[in-house]
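YM 10:42: 3-oxoacyl-[acyl-carrier-protein] synthase 2 sequence, as discussed on the call
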Amino acid sequence: MNTCTPEIVVTGLGLVTPLGVGVESSWSALCQGKSGVGPITRFDTAGFKTTIAAEVKDFNAEDFMSKKEARKAERFIAYIIAASKMALDDAGLVIDSDNAERVGVFTGCGLGGLQTMEESRDVIVNRGPGRVSPFFIPMLIGNMGPGLIAIHFGAKGPNCSVATACAAGTHSVGESMRILQHGQADAMITGGVESVITPLCIAGFNSMKALSTRNEEPEKASRPFDKERDGFVVGEGAGILILETREHAEKRGARIYATLAGYGMSGDAYHMTAPSPEGEGMARCMKSAVEDAGLPLEAIDYINAHGTSTQFNDLCETQAVKSLFGEHAYKLAISSTKSMTGHLLGGAGGVESVFTALTVYHDLIPPTINQESPDPECDLDYVPNQARKQVVNAAMNNSFGFGGTNASVIMKKFKA
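YM 10:58: structure's back
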């Protein structure tokens, strides 16, 4: 990384997850090894192979927006506005006429308003095209995430959304870092969101044989790196970070969680859904992030793994870590928080970047739960079943998406 570029720091965090609404509740449950997976309540699952998911519970959109706004907001929009409000409040960042053009928004989302699409199709079939809501398109498109965040909070700086599948949230965090480094903003609201626990989503992933069917034991269904893993569990929620240049943060006396030090991305150019053999593309992505951070490989203490609980992903990610880090791979602490939150798809990278910042800040590594049957091919330290108190000076967050799109970010301990 060019040493003349400004240091980028994390000053605010916001979470809406299957483990809780708010950073404190989500982080506490995560470190206690609690699972957010349970029976699907959103629709009748009769006839579905998978009847479980990681749903957000006890969320009230009107706690974060007006009743009128809440009535029009698709679930993913409500989640990301809520997480953004929490993050801004946590950062103590007030957007006003003096700084509005220097605060931007960049978020990721995989599928957007899939629920609205399904419901509107039913309206056409049963009631005719004239009864489709005029809010259908605005409720559907993923870029309404950053668009409505900007409108809601008055952020007039750079505004963008990416739809890079399961890497979308992490790509957004990395690209926000670049915007700040290039001087195009002083602060960015960034992260990811997803809410697609719908019949079409579950049926589609079932057809791919990608989901766990451990319906009788939902809390044990997501088991990354475990020999008995049988697929991932769909989750939902939003994770938002406030990033600022160090100069801007210190000038206003902000509390700093971590330094965002590196960002890497790569393409597998291999297959629509399967990772490249032995995680070759994943390894190049991680290598790029470490080099961007200007750190030796041995400086990385922890990896928040993509760790989806599928056979191919977990094996290939393990192989990628080994090929890149060599002997140091066996000294790394690695965990998949998806074992508790499920897989938030386009929102995963945002939520897991928040978790990574908290890991560095608190020197507390969340576990990979459901580590009951060691897989001989996945033989690294996955922090099994219990959180670990350990100094974490530098940590990586990985996100790898369908289409072979990969993203990694590096966070390190802030030094005043």
